[in-house]
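User: Please fill in residues for this 50-position structure.
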């Protein structure tokens, strides 16, 4: 019974890790797509501060 439970826990951890990796990939893709917009926005803030 114990080895069966440890397999389920390990499987759950792997599933959570895969979800985190998928979310990270989506966030990186969004940042890459919006990089020009973010750069322009930050440049406007910097020019306002100066």
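Assistant: Residues filled in for all 50 positions:
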């Amino acid at each position: 019974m114990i080895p069966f439970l440890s397999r389920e826990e390990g499987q759950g951890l792997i599933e959570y890790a895969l979800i985190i990796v998928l979310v990270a990939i989506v966030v990186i893709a969004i940042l890459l797509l919006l990089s020009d917009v973010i750069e322009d926005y930050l440049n406007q803030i910097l020019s306002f501060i100066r």
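For context: The radius of gyration is 21 Å.
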